[in-house]
Design brief:
The mean pLDDT is about 80. The protein is of the alpha+beta class and about 110 residues long. A hairpin with a 6-residue loop joins strand 1 and strand 2. It has a two-stranded antiparallel ribbon. Strands 3-4 form a two-stranded antiparallel ribbon. It is flat and about 70 Å long. The chain has three helices and four strands.
Length: about 110
């Protein structure tokens, strides 16, 4: 028996036998006044590929795609190498664990 949480009555119902008074009355409506739209326009940027200025995202990406170039953006995981893990103070960790066991009355 599979159940789902009901947003109408805030309870749980069997998926196969959903109560009629908890059925949605219409399409889901957002609290936002309009749908989210992403514009193709942008401030003019100079392409590092050909040196021309572009004010359209699609036109800039079209030149990258034609040249076989991959656009990476400014994501630090791509542009910067991963930092090395720091060395742990094993003797300090052991002392801290021993102190915690001692305070708990377990003796270590």
């Amino acid at each position: 028996m599979r159940q789902r949480f009901c947003r109408v009555c805030r309870g749980w119902h069997d998926v196969q036998a959903w109560p009629p008074n908890c059925l949605p009355t219409g399409p889901a409506v957002s609290d936002l006044p309009a749908p989210h739209c992403i514009s193709d326009a942008m401030d003019a940027v100079q392409s590092q590929l050909d040196g021309k200025f572009y004010d359209s995202k699609s036109a800039l990406r079209r030149t990258y795609h034609a040249a076989g170039v991959v656009e990476v953006g400014n994501d630090s995981s791509v542009s910067k190498p991963a930092c090395k893990t720091r060395q742990h103070d094993h003797s300090g960790i052991k002392a801290s664990v021993a102190r915690a066991f001692s305070q708990a009355g377990l003796g270590a």
